[in-house]
Amino acid sequence: MPRGSKAKYTEEQKRKAEHIEDSYEAKGVSKGEAEARAWATVNKQSGGGEKAGGSGQKKSASAKHKARQSSAQRAVKTKHGVPRPDQPLGELTKAELMDKARKQDISGRSKMNKAELVRALSR
Question: Where is the composition biased (Gly residues) (predicted)?
Answer without folding.
Answer: 46-56
